[in-house]
Amino acid sequence: MTDYTKVYQQLTSVDIEKQKRIWDDRGKGYYGEYLLFCQLYKFVPGTAKILMNLEVPVDESHTTEIDLILFHETGLYVFEVKHYKGTIYGKNTEPYWTQYFRTAPNSKFRNPIEQNGYHIRALQRLLPTVPIHSFVVFTHEDCDLRVTNTSSSIDVCRMNDVENILLSRFRNQTVFYSTDDLDMQFRALVSFSKMQETVLLNQESAPFHSWVEPTILGLESKKAELEAEKSRYASLEQSLQKCKKAVLFIGLLAVLLCVVFSLLSVASFREKCQQQLDAFKQNFLHVDQIGNEYIDDLQSYVEVSNVSLTPLTDDACSFTVRLAVSNDVYGIQLTETSKYIVMTTNGKVFEYDVFGEHLKYYSISNKIGTGIRSYADLAKIQFYGIPDIEDISYIKLTDITLFKLDIGNTIIKDSLELELYST
After folding, report:
1. Which of residues 174 and 275 earns the better pLDDT score?
2. Which of 126, 270, 346, 421 has the greatest number of C-beta atoms within 10 Å?
């Protein structure tokens, strides 16, 4: 069985176990590259080679570092690897992307598509006739991609999507390179890598220029397999063409009926949507709060005012509100687990912690009531992931405690909710 850590070290001169113990930013980067290397090593079909951590010249005095290159019989595949967690927002046309966390500061980083484009332009100076494909891969298992990519020639994905996307790229290629071609491409770039002169494969030494692992299928058999698959898709396409003519008339009739129905029933449709929204708001309450008589009471005890929703960026806004209690019997208290729950007009629901890393919780300062403090302006919070404040239809505050204004501040009911904003 192949020891991936040893082969990786032969390719990069990096001891991945040592880097995992150090675990600084560079160590995390190496680990993400190692994870991708292992993934490719296991499944790539056809004749293939891999080089990693290349310092490729851009001009006479500058170089650029490329994380991983896959030499394949269908072309070159250049990978930019990011071992980032959190939610990633960005567009392929923007110079910087955002790494968003709920309980930590957000971070801006350079658009990795542009980074990889810079790498590819350097490679095209060395291999001008070889097709080069760009991949940006986020390898952390706790990464959520919210990226807009309008370029069909570039792939941005998480680790678990690499295999399907790469195999699809292989199937759609018509150019095939022989083993000798791959050796030539490999030799053209190997001097820019940190690859050692000898690679150990299954405890046996092999010169680097013969390193073609993994070779799962030969070139000719792979061609035959791809041709058979293309024939199957061509047959399927013919069947679909036959269905199109039969479906065309039905489709046009259906569109016409939909238009007529829409024109006749706009008022009814709006009323139905409003009923669904009201029902959704009811379901929006926590299960243990449905039918709770304290919900309506709490809404009557607390005056909500000075609501402020302000746009910040294309996907973020700030929110603050004032809560006042004038009741002489009861007061309210926020808890460590209090959250803002935000609903948008299309039914999406977002949660944001009131307290966290940068806003510490103190029980005394979060009580409102006669004799304590009559009102409180909640600290300004940033709602990320919402492109337009006009999309926000409902905001509520959860995990509020209702207590009695006696000596012991006796708790009457906890885990209550308060509506702060509704359109």
Report:
1. 174
2. 421
Q: How many CB atoms lie within 10 A of CB 347?
A: 11
pLDDT band at 210 (very low <50, low <70, confident <90, very high): very low
Whole-angstrom CA distances from 74 to 68, 173, 201, 332 are 16, 6, 24, 66
- Is the CB of residue 184 less than 8 Å from the CB of residue 190? no
* Cα 281 versus chain centre, distance: 28
Determine the 3-state secondary structure of 263 from DSSP: helix
* 85-105 burial code (b ≥16 CB/10 A, e <16): ebbbbbebeeeebbbbeeeee
The CA-atom distances, in angstroms, between 259 and each of 252, 273, 348 are 11, 18, 27
Burial of 353 (0-12, 13-18, 19+ CB in 10 A): middle
- Which pLDDT tens digit goes with each residue over 88-126? 999 999 999 999 988 888 999 999 999 999 999 999 999
The β-bridge partners of 50 are 70
> 3-state DSSP call for residue 184?
helix
Among residues 90, 131, 129, 127, which one has the least CA distance to residue 112? Answer: 90
CB 2 within 8 A of CB 202: yes
pLDDT (tens digit per residue) in 154-208: 999 999 999 999 999 999 988 889 989 999 999 999 889 988 655 555 666 655 4
- Which two tokens mark 86? 């959190």
Report DSSP state, residue 337: T
Provide the residue type at 155 as one letter: D
Q: For residue 273, what pLDDT is reported?
A: 54
pTM score above 0.85? no
Contact (CB, 8 A) for 96 and 108: yes
Structure tokens belonging to residue 176:
């095939």
- Averaged pLDDT of the chain: 82
SS3 354: coil
Identify the burial level of 232 via C-beta atoms within 10 angstroms of its C-beta, where 0-12 means exposed, 13-18 middle and 19 or more buried.
exposed
Output the CA torsion 292→294→296→297 (10° steps): 160
Would you give the DSSP letter of residue 373? B
Determine which helix (DSSP H) or strand (DSSP E) holds 275, and give its type and residue range: helix 266-284
Nearest Cα to 419, choosing from 403, 398, 399? 398
The two tokens of residue 251 are 């489709």
